[in-house]
Amino acid sequence: MKHRHPTNWRGYVFVAPATIYLAVFALVPMLLAGWMSLHRWHLLKDDHPFVGVANYLTLARDPFFRNTIGNTLLYAACAVPLGVLTSLAVALLVARQLRGVGLFRTLFYIPAVSSQVALSMVWIWILLPGEQGLINFCLDRLNAWLGTGIPTDTNFLGRPGWAMAALVAMSLWVGLGPRMVIFLAGLHAIPEPLYEAAALDGCNARQRFWYITLPQLAPTTLFVVVTTTIAAFQLFTPVYMMTKGGPRRTTDVVLYHIFNEAWQKFEVGMASAQSYVLFAIILLAAAFQFWIMRRGLREEAVQ
Amino acid sequence: MRVIAVVSLVSAVVLLAILSRATRGRAASPPQIVLRVANWGSPAVESSFMTLEREIRGEFERQHSGVRVQFEQIPGFGQYAPKLLMMHVSGSVPDVVALDASSAAVFINNGVVCDLAPFIARDPEFHLADYFEKVVQIFRRDERVYSIPLDFTPMMLFFNRKLFDAAGVPYPQRGWTWNDFLHTAQMLTTPPDQPGAAPRQYGMHFMNVMPFWVLWLWTNGGDVLDTEGRRATGHFDGPRSVEAVQFLTDLMLKYHVAPTIDEGKAAGVDLFRAGRAAMDVKGHWMMIDYRADGLEFGVVELPTNTGRPSTVIYAAGLSIMSKAQHPDLAWEYIKFMTSRDVQIRRVASGLAISSNRQAAARYAGTPVEDAFIAAVEYARAPWGATVERYPVVEGLGEEMMEDLLRSRAALGVAVELHHAAELIDAALTEP
To answer: Do B402 and A155 touch (CB under 8 A)?
Structure first.
């Protein structure tokens, strides 16, 4: 009994830095935002009258906010499945022990260590209309070469639809590295004897993938899906840099909208309410994914 | 190895400590007041104008010993006001700030900048009458003066003389109407080489920037808001405004005398500056670039349908933040910067017209300059000088214009304007 107490005490000392950090920079601001969301709170005005849930009711009626929710869901619905599939495919490719595979792993990871602002600038140049844009430039050369008539003046970031597609495309590329690394770790953790046993049983490559790799990767996949989903709901920098929510608010996603509400209009009360709505959505999405995955795992265990 | 590492680390720390002590001691020897001055713009752009401004600030420092002017440039289009307002909220503010008339309301209405009337009253050397009355009024609320105007520009119609000469079209004259304008623009538009392509030369350059196109509403007798600046319905969607917006969209979609949004973007250059558009509505500041490019241009008032000309004055003034550390020194700085001699040197670049009338008179006498100064008579203050949420209005207006310009089969200008007016009303009245 006697030596137990000091051990506890030391444990608290060790977790204190992280706990204090989280409390000061995450928990307190979160609670404060909740408090502010119940007020009409303009940063430059002195009085902050309590309005109850009025901000939330306004949001429920606000067509612009509903639009941002729709945009965000659309983005997540495209970026998450595509992002997970592409990174899984790439991870399977670079998981093989080939010469020079380290180079490819590094190349695919480079976007993840670059500034999102710099990456957005690069993508702006890729997507510009006419001669200045890389895609349009290549199309132009292709036209000259093959005699095709593909239009080369598409303003990808200025056209509704195209702008969202461009953001999704960029997210696939930027998020590829981190997701790939996690899948790689998951792939390496699959016990080799499983494959050996399957080979002895005469399984072909597709069966090995379907009956061993994929089920064994389930926890990894869950993790990647959840983190990718959360990241998709928190899309901000490329929108801020590339589209400013346009054209016609088709890329006005929730986080960008919140930013404008708070730091352009200074309505921090309303912005806090929007943040809480986003928080609820992410929480629900993550819970749903966990539930799905857990049910899947349980069924497997039963089988 | 380890011993060496530890020893070198310790000696490095000691050395750093000594160095920082030494530098601190040196910096502390003359007691120095730091006057923080903020302006918009990007510090990366180095020009002769910025060199001149630095020299002028240096002179102020020499006149006030022990004072160092710390110049803080805040880059990013549309980021200037939010950044300063955040500084105000956090309490760490520059002493002097340049105020843009089109975003002045939020500063004035919320007490972010202070009333300069007491400074003026105390100072026998300073006379508000030395400045253009029209421009002073923009920053004024009754007896309270929130900014001393630095310089300003009415928005004018620029035309490329060479392109007019080449087409044999007479230069536009005062008192011209929209019909004259359309006719002129059509004569200056060169059809494309192949059908379906973009014209080789446009009569008019157009960008969907509401501060530039709002004037077309005014020259047709329409407006965005009522005189109080509270409502858009009945004004932005009124018949005069509808006509104006219809005319603007027709310039691009029907007559094709101005580039569509995509054509403008694909060109990648300022078409007027590149000599590929014959006319443009811009301010005085563009003359720096036009002159540098050797563009031969003339300036005329905007065409009008109301029988009298109309335009907007965009102005910059210097203000003292209400939380400034050194308000009295800030006032000295403002007085210095807006004084006749400094102003004469500042506007020599062509940036704008000095709001100091004596300094402005120095550059008068050329047709271009006189056209600008004549516009002061009839020009109006921008809405943003009095309506705090006007940036939101402009955002909604530009979205509406973009909608109209992109989808030819839309519900029509009147419906779109009515919809936009309702959104603006909601944005202006929401708590």
So the answer is: no
